[in-house]
Amino acid sequence: MTLPTSELADGMPTCDFTIVGATGDLSLRKLVPALYRREAEDQLRPGTRIIGVSRSDLDDDGYRAVVGEALAHHIGDELDPVVVVRLLARVHHLVLDAATPDGWHLLHHLLKEGDPDAVRVFYLATAPALFGPICHRLDEIGVVDPSARVVLEKPIGTDLASARAVNDAVGQVFDEQQIFRIDHYLGKESVQNLLVTRFANTFLEPLWNSRWVDHVQITVSETLGVGERGDYYDGSGALRDMVQNHLLQLLCLVAMEPPTYVGRETVRDEKLKVLQALKPMSADDVDRDTVRGRYGQGLADGVAVPSYTEELGRPGSATETFVALRAEVQNWRWAGVPFYLRTGKRMDRKISEIVVVFKEPPHAMFPHHEGTQPSPAANRLHIQVQPDEGMQLHMTAKEPGPGGIRLRPVSLDLSYATAFDARMPDAYERLLMDVIRGNPTLFMRRDEVEAAWTWVEPILRRWSVTPDRPRRYPAGTSGPTAAATLIERDGRTWQESDHD
User: Fold this and answer.
1) What is the pLDDT of residues 30-62, one digit of tens each?
2) Which residues constitute the signal peptide according to the record (predicted)?
3) In the annotation, is 246 catalytic?
4) Could you tell me the domains of the chain?
């Protein structure tokens, strides 16, 4: 089955964009604002409709009021009333329960009333257990055609077997090229710019290998606790929630080989090779190279906050809210280069970054230099994914002045906010438009998802049979001390960005 090519000159076809789970947090916090921003940029074509599906007892006007409130809350003072009116004119709502067959014919009728050439996008902002049943409902009512696309939010399963079950169920209705498994990290400007930085600049790519790179660090830390996601999170934990998808995807983009060109399948082919090259974790590897933690009471932004178990109301929970681990990519380019990953909730700062640490010069030409630094610091490339997207290249320079040579670390800074006179779009804005265009480059393919689970599963199995519980760390800190020990035993330390 091939996707239709009858798209407009700018690559954006007319679309019926159906959101299943339309009154949930994801829909109102991320999807609706993203569609508003694209409306403001005139990227939604005439005839495009937004169809909300939920169990909430709302008619079209009621749902439009909910959407308007969400826009006012999440867009704020930048909200343009004219754009709001245009967007709300596209909005409809149907009361349906995704778990039952009743009433789905209403969606069939509504879709048939629209543009017969419109691309149909079904965004499943629901629990993964409903992905398969919803797809079968759509098939039963006859609304899945060659132009249809379905978007799946992570997590895709909780282990390899459940991921395969979800993929099998969805794949019975949609061809693989119609399935868009979304990871919003891949839509961020700095993540996409990583490919450009590596492959469009000839000075850097020759250094991007084990000869010149000492190690790589990937950090995704959050200051918030589990909040209203407690029920989901306690059955998931940081390894499933963050490492299996977000952090491994970032690792893939750092480690992948140059594709022939940046296109529909070439990037995903190269990412898959990285996942397949990850050194499998034995039980001893898990014990030595992974750390799991759970936040206790502490301070967040100067305010006392409860521990994870207190916030959750489950004193016996053994779920981890922090993971640090050491991984290796066993191929020609990266042999012997460790990749250190860490992620956690209730940390001391909210930041997502990649740090590539280069090896020190092979010969100390300035053994008697003066200055505050005992020796030149290693060159490092900081790629900041959020909150302030940009890059810093840390170098060593001579401090101006007469007399002896004084070496001083300096940095070349690129801030997207100041370098480009344009608003940085939210990741969902780009990804939703890519779905409508039918461009899968920034989405995960089935074999990627399953390869990631294949690597993560031995960690989950080992943790499930070891008596050790997650190590406690105070809220508002950088995690358990064992995470520092993990990297320091290799003679390295966690790098922190200069931008807080």
Assistant:
1) 999 999 999 999 999 999 999 999 999 999 999
2) none
3) yes
4) 15-182 (3.40.50.720), 189-424+445-488 (3.30.360.10)
